[in-house]
Structure prediction request, 192 residues.
Amino acid sequence: MSSDNDYDKLTKEEREARDKADREREVAEQAALPYRWKQELGEVDITVPVPKGTRARDLVVVIQKKKLSVGLKGQEKIMEGELCKEIKLEDSTWTLEDQQSLLIHLEKLNKQQWWDNILTHHPKIDTRKIQPENSKLSDLDGETRGMVEKMMFDNQQKQMGKPTSDELKKMEALKKFQAAHPELDFSNAKIS
Prediction:
């Protein structure tokens, strides 16, 4: 992959051509892997096809904080190596579906970072091109939700030419101070 500096110097058409070629290469590299995977910010789901009729006891699956190994007993590993990032071991699981697909769910330790790949020796994807799904405010934890709601309110207020929540707090504090100190003259005060 060329440097971002070179990319910035390209024309719009050249960028589109490079992006298309990069996407095609990435799709081909990912298709060659012995598994499929998808991710959200907090988790990764891997689907490993196994021979029809496989039972859970036929599988050897080892999930560690920074390693993953998948195989069938007595056979060469299907996939094995170091994970590109650490996982929460206690929240990561695997299940066999329809005796033909192994589903592995990995909870990311850092829930604010996209993964480039599953195993460090496998081809990387361009995480700058990921289009995350829209999430609902109700999906967020309390603190994050409050912060997002405040940002949304402030943005609406700015668009209407009204004071933001911080400015409203300052104005309220000033009113309280003025009410507590009627002897002071604020008529010529410039408050920012």
Observations:
- The longest strand covers residues 87-97.
- The two ends are 49 Å apart (CA to CA).
